[in-house]
Amino acid sequence: MKKNSEGEIRVKVTEHILVPRHEVLAPEEIEEVLKRYNAKIDQFPYILSTDPVVKEIGAKPGDLIKIIRKSATAGETIFFRYVVEE
Amino acid sequence: MYLEESVKTIDSIKFTVFSPNQIRKYSVAEITTPETYDEDGIPIQGGLMDNRLGTLEPGQKCATCGNTTARCPGHYGHIELAEPVLHIAFVKVIYKLLLSICRVCGRLLISEAELESYRKRFTNECTFTPKCKEEIPKEMMAKAKKIKICPHCGKQQYEIEFTKPTIFHEITEEGGAIRLLPIAIRERFERIPDIDLKLLGFDPRSARPEWFILQVLPVPPLSVRPSITLESGIRSEDDLTHKLVDILRVNQRVRESKASGTPPLIVQDLVDLLQYHVTTYFDNEVSGIPQAHHRSGRPLKTISQRLKGKEGRFRGSLSGKRVDFSSRTVISPDPSLDISEVGVPLEVAKKVTVAEKVSSWNQGFLKNLVINGPSKYPGANYIIRPDGVKIRLDYVSDKETFANTLAPGFVVERHLMNGDIVIFNRQPSLHRMSIMAHYVKVLPFRTFRLHPAVCPPYNADFDGDEMNLHVPQSEEARSEALTLMKVQQQILSPRYGGPIIGAIRDFITAAYLLTKPETLLIKEEFSNLALAGGYNGPLPKPEINEPRELYTGIQLFSLFLPKDFNYTMTSKWTKSSGKGASVRDIMIKDGKLLSGSIDRAAIGAEEPDSVLHRIAKDYGIDVARNFLNSILSILKSFITKYGFSYGYDGLILDEEAKKMIDNEIKNSYRKIKESIDQFNQGTLKTVRGLSLEETLEFYIVNELAGARDRVGRTADKAFPLDNSGVVMARTGARGSSLNIGQMTAALGQQSVRGKRIEKGYHGRALSHFSLWDRTPDAKGFIRSNYRDGLNPTEFFFHAIGGREGLVDTAVRTQQSGYMQRRLINALEHLKVEYDLTVRDPFGNIVEFLYGEDGVDPAKSDHGKAVNVEHLVEIEALVNKSEKPVEEKQLEKIVNKYEGQLNIKLIQDLKASLLKIPLNVSGNKNVCRKVVEQLDRATIEPGEACGVVAAQSIGEPGTQMTLRTFHFAGVKERDVTLGLPRLIELVDARKQPSTPSMDIYLDDEHRSSEESALKIAKEILLTKVSDLVGYSEISYGERGYEINLFLDQEALQERDSSPEQIVKAISLKSGKRKVEVDEEGAISVTMEGADFSTLSVLKDKIMSMRVKGVPGIDHITIIKKGDEWMMQTAGSNLAKVLKIPGVDLSHTTTNNIYEIETALGIEAARAAHIKEIMSTLDEQGLEVDIRHILLVADLMTSKGFFQSIGRHGIAGQKPSVLARAAFEITVPTLVEASVKGEVEELKGVTENVIVGLPIPVGTGMIDLFMKSDKSD
């Protein structure tokens, strides 16, 4: 739990059970992912730059975020989202 | 017949607006006179029926193209309007443009520098700004609207006033309103430069704004507005023709009056009339102007009405195709058919035909058919010669000689025959099993016959249902039907991965009666029944030899099980006798039924994890079909001979049971009377959160529900186990023990909206009761049963309750139907690609691996990719091991498969293999089989997973209850459930109708109720009104003042102080003064305020927040496990998470939008899936999670929640036709033409509309060629 300048509690959203792990991909990794799915980056699902998790992990528009979700069918699964401006 | 034209396929469609010049160019005739025909009935040249516009009568030739009706496409004419008028569809666009451009120079009212920056943003190649790019035109228009002086020419701008539907005024500085005539608007629009238009989202080459003002009106060809000749010989013209006549008349008058120098005011009136007629010609439902009517009083159906709505051009004519070779009649059951057969009446078989090409192999066969001709079955109706000439055999007199001319290359349209494949369908087609391929069996009489076991997928019964039959005409169609649509291929439903076809009703009764241990058969019976099932092996040894040879029914059943089949499960009988699901009474080993009776749980329809399901999964669909066919036909023969009936005598209870029932009810009545007395005396103890009256009601309802259950059980127990009703209820064949109770004991409480019946008269439900009578009898409790009959008041109550059921069903079908339509529309274009990603036709990724594990729910094992546990059990039987593998070695074996199997399967494998230890080869075998089965369960590329998902969620919607409210654990907290909640979720509403939170507490606070209560007080919203006992406005020396007298008890309960209230009121107080006097009363004064201002202020103060979280209206503290937590009514996640003491990682809400803003899109997606699943679970409906994942992934794919419907996904589709066909037809077309949009025909609806194969499934296959890069 962190407090901001006014002493108000700042909620750390990534600690919530509903929030899966988000990771910003490095440019080489993006290249690799794009090749694997044979798609342009704007064909990936989006995530808004104003999304609380994006803000918390400090991702910028143009980044690709790798999301490691818990899955009811596969145990764990990987998803990608492309950070876009709102 | 061959077409002379070369075959062309539509590549794309561009939408544009015609310029006046284009209209003139495409016109073949200028229409000038309102007269249509002369006295001889000949069309007048230059009239609306001018023969240059096309022809109507078959013999006639078109004056333009020389073709007859069949070939002439029709040609446009035009009308030169005497005065320009506005096109009603573009009025909104015109208004927006007027607001944002300069009235003098026509430039956008934004400075050049800013324009330049917008232009840069517009052309910016950056791909991470898709959302804000769309916003540019809107943003600019909003900005331009406010600017008063043109930054380009420096001229003053005036306000524009728009009077709906077509009048614009300019408000000049001097205060005068000057009418902006269409001609003036046109002039302004001509000055707008192309570069500015482009910024506003217009395509100036497709649509210059001045074209929105009509100078020339196109006149549609005759084929668009054909006139019809009535029987009396009177010609009746089309609505459009009528409207065009009106336009021409007024147009003529305007022209004449202009020429003759009539005062401008009168001319303007005429022009307005012309505007009215042109407006109604395009759209006769514009608000603000009267509708144009036909002579008979019926409103005219003009262009907009032709396109719009369910019966309009888009949905009615273009998306809905009509077909030949189809048939419809009533259905009736025939259990002697194969489940994959359909009985077709002879009459139908002689009408719908199959085109068969003559070859040397079938020449003789077809010759005989031709000789038989159309009337003798089996025969043929038509012959198509190789030169394309079609000969109707009715007209051939000497068929014998004619048949001899038959040679290879001819096509014979022969009658439908046994073994042909046909497609059978029952509406509403809610899921893919509503349309299946059957083999034809031609039968006498006039109904379609189908096996009762295929009723569940069609949702058919035989109370007069009709079904449709289609005969595929091409080899491709037939082979697709055979490989994809056969009944046995649909046994396993994609909704939950279990069988949807299986035994129903009497088959289940029969199965139980046959396989109960007491059933013995003599040799003749046994062999007869075995033969009925198609058994042709040796007879087994009889179970009993003395005094005579007797076989058991169990032996008979076992004959048809696969020889190496092993399975254990719980029968429905055991489950419903309350022995619990842990007893696995049905045991099958090596294809022999060892114990337990077969009933619904084993072979029933819609029963996953049953014997039938296992056979279908482990041995394949054809074995399952044969098994079902054999078993069902045995059961049919068996129960026919055995005899089974249920009647009045099956409902008679013994005296003792009757007495018990009577006593039970009397007892409850007595208890209730006591409570009512207590209530009247005021001594009734209230339940927390309920008022006194609610408490009484709550108590009575509970007591009566309990009484009904108890008497039902008493009755149920009183019947012997061989009572037909009990047999049916316990085996799951039909009915429930509740039904038996209602028939023999008491019907129970009738309800309206979940409450006892109250309405009717003032203070009472029926006039037979006294005012405010709260006794069970007066409020709809029925203590009689169906056997003895109801007394008159009970009868009325029963009718009231029954009516609610009927209304509910009617409303529900509508709501769920619409939800299904929206779901299908939103998801139809999604398909699985070759890399198992799910994408839309533009290549946008929705899911990276279908269902997160790539498994097709229809091929899954009740949702699981592979049923590992079952595999291990089977392996253990085959591979009995003395040397079980140690855990370490097991890990090593399993871990080798990590690359091929997902985490869940690896975990499942380890767990199952640990539970049942196997040796090394056994372990390896299991692992290998898992990989193999996973491969088989993997979804196929091209699968229309979107449609399947939409159907799998939409279809159960029809079965949901509409009941909105339901107690969910806590009494104070009503939560919306069922269909309304599901609709709310797919709508992605920002505010659910019953928001609610689950608040968990951190380590310090969760252990005791006191600490939980302390936090609850911080969270619960406390308003001033909650703490004030009495308030007034008094007049004293300081003028009027508000006096608030605090409620001390409330203060304590809410843990707040007067200071807090003062602080709350003083916040942003401005002129008011707040003081506290010695007694703790608060007074508020405001200088110079009169009574009425203070009265308003008082109300405002009362609703002010003192403490707590806004939105949280109610909190209940409950103990969950050994921790304390809270459930609330009202929700505010972001604020609650900021309260100290709240567990930040577990606290959730059912308001998905709040989760989205507070925790992000991924958390919202997870919560959304959870909510949908729990809504469906609560209703007892099984839907595979993969379908819901897909819906959630699609809804969140743009980074924020898009709703399923016109405001969300359907409205954002790139395809113009798909959008137009969904809901907002006309505005969509207008927008498309203004922007010059191009329809690329990549989705499903678009291709259906233009008549091309759809790009999913088998339609996805296409030829690609690598082109040389240098080209």
Notes on the structure:
The complex is a heterodimer of chains A (86) and B (1271). By secondary structure, chain A is an alpha+beta fold. Chain A contains 2 helices and 6 strands. Chain A has helices spanning 27-37, 52-57, and strands at 2-3, 9-10, 21-24, 46-48, 64-71, 75-84. In chain A, the strands form 2 sheets. In chain A, strands 3-5-6-4 form a 4-stranded mixed β-sheet. A two-stranded antiparallel sheet of chain A has the order 1-2. With 1271 residues, chain B is an alpha+beta fold. Chain B has 7 domains: 31-75 and 220-307, RNA polymerase II, clamp domain (DNA Excision Repair, Uvrb, Chain A); 89-211, no CATH class; 326-488, Barwin-like endoglucanases (Beta Barrel); 499-642, Enzyme I, Chain A, domain 2; 648-790, Orthogonal Bundle (Topoisomerase I, Chain A, domain 4), CATH 1.10.132; 831-957, no CATH class; 967-1188, Gyrase A, domain 2, CATH 3.30.1360. In chain B, the strands form 16 sheets. In chain B, strands 9-17-10-16-15-18 form a 6-stranded mixed beta barrel. A 4-stranded antiparallel β-sheet of chain B has the order 11-14-12-13, with helices on one face. A 4-stranded antiparallel β-sheet of chain B has the order 42-43-35-44. Classes of the chains: A alpha+beta (86), B alpha+beta (1271). Chains A and B meet through strand 4, helix 2, strand 5 and strand 6 of A and helix 4, helix 30, helix 40, helix 41 and helix 42 of B.
Features of this protein?
heterodimer; A: 86 residues; alpha+beta; Eukaryotic RPB6 RNA polymerase subunit; four-stranded mixed sheet; 2 helices; 6 strands; 20% helix; globular; B: 1271 residues; DNA Excision Repair, Uvrb, Chain A; Barwin-like endoglucanases; 7 domains; six-stranded mixed barrel; four-stranded antiparallel sheet; 15% strand
Write a brief structural summary:
With 86 residues, chain A is of the alpha+beta class. Chain A contains 2 helices and 6 strands; from the N terminus they run E-E-E-H-E-H-E-E. Chain A has helices spanning 27-37, 52-57; strands at 2-3, 9-10, 21-24, 46-48, 64-71, 75-84.
